[in-house]
Design goal:
This protein is an alpha/beta fold. The chain has three helices and three strands, in the order βαβαβα. It starts with 7 loop residues before the first strand and ends in a 10-residue tail after the last helix.
């Protein structure tokens, strides 16, 4: 991870019993010096309230429409499809 320094890190919230681990990973990724965007998606992203994790650096993708909207509009300081 430190070698490539990705601009976006995607995490799957597909299994409810993995949510505590997912939350720890989000905290670790938020501490990275280059501040990547962290996108969380999957079945549990819609089913469980994960808004507590959302910040300027963390985005919870609840469904494909939500992801499509992000691609179209982007977020401040983040690359989108028109960049």
């Amino acid at each position: 991870m430190n070698r490539f320094k990705p601009h976006v890190i995607g995490l799957s919230a597909a299994l409810s019993y993995r949510l505590p681990t997912l939350k720890k990973l989000v905290q670790e990724f938020m501490a990275l010096e280059w501040n990547p965007l962290i996108m969380i998606g999957g079945r549990m992203a819609r089913k469980f309230e994960l808004e507590e994790l959302e910040t300027d650096q963390v985005m919870v993708v609840k469904d494909l429409n939500n992801l499509h909207q992000w691609f179209k509009e982007g977020r401040a300081g983040i690359i989108n499809e028109t960049s």
